[in-house]
Amino acid sequence: MQVLKKSDPEVYEAVTKEIERERNNIVLIASENYASRSVLETQGSIFSNKYAEGYPDKRYYGGCDYADSVESLAINRAKELFGVEHVNVQPHSGTQANMAVYFALLKPGDKILGMGLSNGGHLSHGAPFNFSGIFYKPYVYGVSKKTGLIDYDNVRKIAKKRKPKIIVAGASSYSRTIDFKAFSEIAKEVKAFFLADIAHIAGLIVAGLHPSPVPYADFITSTTHKTLRGPRGGMIMCGAKYARMIDKMIFPGIQGGPLIHVIAAKAVAFKEALSEKFNSYQIRVVKNAKEMADALTQKGFRVVSGGTDTHLMLIDLTDKSITGRDAQAVLDRAGITVNKNSIPYDDKPATVTSGIRLGTPIVTTRNMREPEMVLIADLISQVLNNPNDSVVIGRVREKVRSLCDKFPVYEDIET
Ligand SMILES: *Cc1c(COP(=O)(O)O)cnc(C)c1O
Known about the structure:
This protein has 16 helices and 15 strands. It has helices at residues 2-7, 9-24, 37-43, 65-82, 94-105, 131-134, 152-162, 180-189, 202-206, 243-254, 260-273, 276-298, 324-333, 361-365, 370-385, 390-406; strands at residues 26-27, 54-55, 58-59, 86-88, 111-115, 137-141, 166-169, 193-197, 219-223, 234-238, 302-303, 312-316, 336-337, 339-341, 355-359. Helix 4 runs parallel beside helix 11 (260-273), helix 5 packs across helix 10 (243-254) and helix 15 runs antiparallel to helix 16 (390-406). The N and C termini lie close together (5 Å). Pyridoxal-5'-phosphate is lined by residues 31, 93-95, 122, 124, 170-172, 197, 199-200, 223, 234.
């Protein structure tokens, strides 16, 4: 980045510091991943310059030959990856993907039923301060207080009572397998559309580690940057009969020009995800999560729902006399990056919370395995049991640093 270094030292410095941060911390943010150099190179490519409103072979601008090539590659690879009839790879984000589906199906004031935010759902599933809760009438389902699992009988009860026009399944902090078939049956019973939002678990689905919603859902939305390990962005999948409706709603409905550099990087990520190596990576992500959940349980932490089937877990700190907010801050000082997260039926506000969310996609991308998960669980336990002890925190910081040195990442990025 020698050109940037000369032209804009301030931004250059932030970028180089971010590279150091990503290298030298144990990042356990469940929604993040470290994309490959190929994905990053493509995303930073010259396609950033190109306007290509429309779709391959149906553009509003000249000079779209190569934009057509990369978008077609992305579409065809995604179709193969998920086994779907139609894919739109243009949504700028997961939220944008959900917005297009809602705008295509619903009128303002229509009822939507999604998982409550405090129970693990996403903002865009009807949170009152999100467009999805402002334009539409949101109803929520959640998890059982006793088990921490989605209570499907209760979902059915609410659906029958409220008669939503769409039911959304999918979550941001739910660690268990989601029964898409059960959701689709409930949706049929109340004549609602069924949207499966696989933003978090797309990579697991590709590898066959989580059941696919493909035979059951009317629409599937996803991000491409979480377990899928691609560039930051979204996508929509559906049957051929809805193809035109969805494409028209993304463009010209809610977006203008597509981000061709990002779409090109999506194509690269989809090719990576079609490989055998990607499957074994996902297997290790899930194994590592189980190992970390077990190790933390042995250290006396309560894992919501008792464990995990996926890449993430939610730790309940209620008995630990530390809030989620303070846990996040003190772990940060020790070089361990997590996010505070509400636990189901949390009595603290979302800015404080009683929990933290942990995920294993990034540490697995760095090739860490079960022994390192046990070590990380031990480091977390030391910090959270001694949040005011600078000596302990300093010692953990050093151990984090040497673990990062043992599992290097982005070594060959030129700065
Ligand atoms: C992350 C996430 C999204 C949205 O992703 P953005 O790209 O941040 O808009 C949507 N749905 C679920 C379930 C998510 O976890």
